Amino acid sequence: MLRNKIKDSLKEAMKSKDKRKTSTLRLIIATLQDRDLAARDKGAEEGITGEEILQMMTTMVRQRRESIAAYEKGGRVDLATAEQEEIDIISDFLPRQFDDAEIRQAVEDVIVEIGAAGLKDMGKTMAALKSKYAGRMDFSKASAIVKEALGA
């Protein structure tokens, strides 16, 4: 289970005195605990699902990519490097990410599968992609491809 893998990695990072990995894994665990508490308030006694954990971690990677762009624009290469190191650590727990061609193919497959016929079906298409490919693609890129495909 992903939760156990994260906790085991934290133990290993602490033993090896890897400060960056330790702090990043602690951040992941803290975010996970926050999401679990919110889910329990809504009645999910087990906390968030494995799929939701993947989505959370994908969001963390996306946030760091946005930070890297801002840091590089501001000339803070040191901070951009630190963010990239965190991305590398988080990505170790994610499945291999789809490239643009694979995202495009997945979008086309889902559109055919659900019979999407126009922009009015964009929400339905995105929901199907998220349930089928959680943690495996950048959904902001997928959204643009869906919009392009359904708008044509």
Description:
The structure is a single chain. The chain is mainly alpha-helical. It folds into two domains: 2-91, Orthogonal Bundle (Hypothetical Protein Yqey, Chain: A, domain1), CATH 1.10.1510; 100-151, Orthogonal Bundle (Arc Repressor Mutant, subunit A), CATH 1.10.10. It contains seven helices and no strands. It has helices at 2-15, 19-41, 50-73, 77-91, 100-114, 122-132, 139-151. The longest helix is centred in the middle third of the chain and has 24 residues, at 50-73. It starts with a helix and ends with a helix. The model has no long low-confidence stretch (mean pLDDT 91).
Record field, number of beta strands: 0
Class of secondary structure makeup: mainly alpha
Shape: globular
Query: Any low-confidence stretches, pLDDT <50, length ≥5?
Result: none
CATH superfamily of the largest domain: Uncharacterised protein YqeY/AIM41, N-terminal domain
Total helix count? 7
- Indicate the CATH class of the largest domain: Mainly Alpha
User: What's the end-to-end separation, in Å?
Assistant: 41 Å
* Integer tally of domains: 2
The CATH topology of the largest domain corresponds to Hypothetical Protein Yqey, Chain: A, domain1
The whole-number mean of residue pLDDT values reads: 91
Largest sheet: none
Strand content: under 5%
Whole-number radius of gyration? 18 Å
Oligomer: single chain
What string gives the helices and strands in order? Answer: HHHHHHH
Helix coverage percent? over 70%
Second-tier CATH architecture of the largest domain: Orthogonal Bundle
